[in-house]
Amino acid sequence: MSRRLMLAVCALTLTPAFFACGDDDAGAVTGGGGTKTTGQTVAVSTASPKLATPASQYSVSVEDLGTGWITDIRGTFVIDSARYAQTQRLFTSETEGLKLLRDWGYQGGYETGYVPEGRDQSVLNGAYYVFIESHLFGDESGAQKAFDYFIQFVGKAPGAQPVSIAAVGNKSAAFVTTTGTITGSTVKATYHHVITRRGNLVTIALTKGAESFMKSDAAWDVAQMADEKALGERKTSVPTPTGDYKTPTPAPKP
Amino acid sequence: MKRKRQQPLLFLGAGLVLIAMGAVVAFLFLANGDDGVDVSKTVSEGDNPSKSTSGTAGGPEVVSNGPATKWSLLLGELPPNYEVDVSNTFIQNISTFSSSYWFKTEKEGTDRGAEWRIIDGFQTLYQPKGLAAEVAQGSYYVRVETYLFQNADGAKKAWAHYDNVLKSSSTSTPVKTKALANDSSAYEIISGTVGPSEIVAVFHRFNFRRGNTIVSVQTWGGKPFVNIDPAREIAAIIDAKLLGTRPASEPTPIPTPSFPGLGN
What we know:
heterodimer, A: about 250 residues, alpha+beta, 8-stranded antiparallel sheet, two-stranded antiparallel ribbon, B: about 260 residues, 7 helices, 8 strands, disordered N terminus
């Protein structure tokens, strides 16, 4: 498996696990409104659009995040069924991966990441990393199956704890995992996952920061921005994939 | 949401700003503990009273020779989770001293420095390797400033000025502690939070004069975790060096960066 392919699913498979349900089934949050951990009341649309490809247009851009971020170029790329099916840990085999993706009507995906300026030094002062995956399916039903599968996968990871969040999208769930340390220190790293489904789109937002500072709000904010794009409430654009970028070889001068 | 999106830069800046505030703000407080008088008689204990009793209150007016680096704190005297903040560690000269927070104008600093006959100075900053995230868990930053004067009389005049500068701050609060050395004082300022957390941050400053030497020890940490004691304990360590009861050695010099092509 190529490094790029491994990175392609890092948001879902990098960390042990995470998720608390903010969906109807879990009863934590239902459509129509919820409360963030900050106490902010959030109205939630019940619209379930069928979104067109490419999935990248529903991702979050560096402009959406604001200043102080650097795009993780090597971790930014388009995902297709063939590559996604090879994701180790997420699927028991490539064959199973292809079968599930076919069953779900997988249309394609996109992953990107953002690094805080100052990297781990700034993380120790409160900044955090952001990873986001966007996956499109043939219809709402397929997306819901994938959503359920992703939550099952993350929920089984060691150390994952459910987190109560406000609803975002048609369905949402969040988990927190604290594992490892921030480089150069003994401060533990905390990962927050917020997984959402809006129509036929599944979005996975992941943040990594210092245990002392991180709450689910940061990942929730990212997921909310993506949801706004899916609803047409925020400007969308198709970013230029950077993962396949190669430095051009200069042509020899005659 | 907007605030969230700008957090990384804000947080990065916040850490640096808070450190800087340690220097700019911490000296805004101070009380007099002259000649072994217990300053606790004039100040309140606060909600986290000092228990530090180490060191010698009063004692000889020792005249120490330079360099000032010898009368500071070594990295090895702190717990292993500390590192030197190189950019905030430097030897003072008359220019940096004159333009420091001690004075309103550089001219005033130059004039007073000459009057008091300052001969050397050193500042060092130690930070927990986990920076603000570790502060949120109970650790703290440490800044030590050491000033050497030619004789005790000059240091006494400097102390009086310095004490007055710090006293003039309206935001600082005197802290009740056991006195140390020939003169001492302690203050705290409660300001802001530790990074993006909800933990209230606090600056503590413990200052003392031993003979011809003035030392200021400042800490920045979380209010639930830190009181004046870490600063006072470090001050007591340095005073023991000045009294000759604890070995004193110069720290390993920090290499001067070279810039190829600029003739260095």
